[in-house]
Amino acid sequence: MEAALLLIRAGVYLNQRAQYAEAEPLLVRALAIDKKVLGAGHPQVATDLNNLALLYQNQGRYAEAEPLHVRARVIYEKALKPEHLQVATGLNNLAGNYSRQGRYVEAEPLYMRALAIREKVLGAEAPQVATVLGNLAELYRNQGRYAEAEPLYARALAIFEKALGAEHPDVADCLNNLAELYDNQGKYAEAEPLRRKELAICEQRYGADDLQTAASLTRLLRCLQEQGRHEEALPLCRRALAIREQCMEAGHFKIAFSLSNLGLSLVCLEGDDNLAEAEQRLLRATQIAEKFPDPRYWLARLYQKRGRDGDRERVIEEWKRYLELESTSDERRHEAIARLEVLSGQGKL
Fold it and tell me: Angle of helix 104-122 relative to helix 85-100, nearest 10 degrees?
């Protein structure tokens, strides 16, 4: 039992730090020990199954995680009372798996039942209640049910702030989720103060040069970019990029993402110096992530703006490369096709 507990602690720790390959054998071994010692129907075995399922889920291995969540739920409901908190945990985790697979109709009643159990057992103001509220709100947001999602996010935020303090990481996560809801509706002015508050929490909790802070900076700068405020976004772009270059391997996709964000604002600000730097940053992004469409899009826009000798050919080449990528948005694909048609007719850049 003690050996299994140590394996679980180590595996969960590694999972939280995205060291999945190291975590998996520890959690698998802990599960095997507990099944042998306690029996396959013991609640601890269900907890072990959940831990392993969450590891798979963090890697996007939802199909592998699902049967583990289902088995855990069955064990909890058979071994414990219907309103036991571990039953609620099993329901919440299985609902999360369904939700990530887009199976919202299956997920919603599970979230509702988990919420009812936690409210009854813990009270309406418990942080565990806020967690399910946030999950249910995310489900509604993903379905475009924004009016139903907003009060749930707001209630979750109020609970977290009261129970945990205004600077707790769970408060930052909830601020981010509510801001995402506003982003989805184009309400960037409403999202911005939430983004700034989230960033302040991350800086205080994790430090100015932490990857969590870089992620929060990225969310804020994107909010500013969506409002056309590129002068304000530019220093945040540089700061997020610097953190990621310092903390990540040189070929990491998130570095390409930060390079693309910086290139975007530089292209929109125009000016020879800005466009020269943008070209350098965007070309580097394409080298890191060949199939990432954003740098190609902004390179095409850059060459179009600059209009130097040879840029016509570069514009045509970048639009063609952009259209070859699978993950392009419909709106931008139509733009690329239209611009290529103009260019093929020898129209202006």
Answer: 160
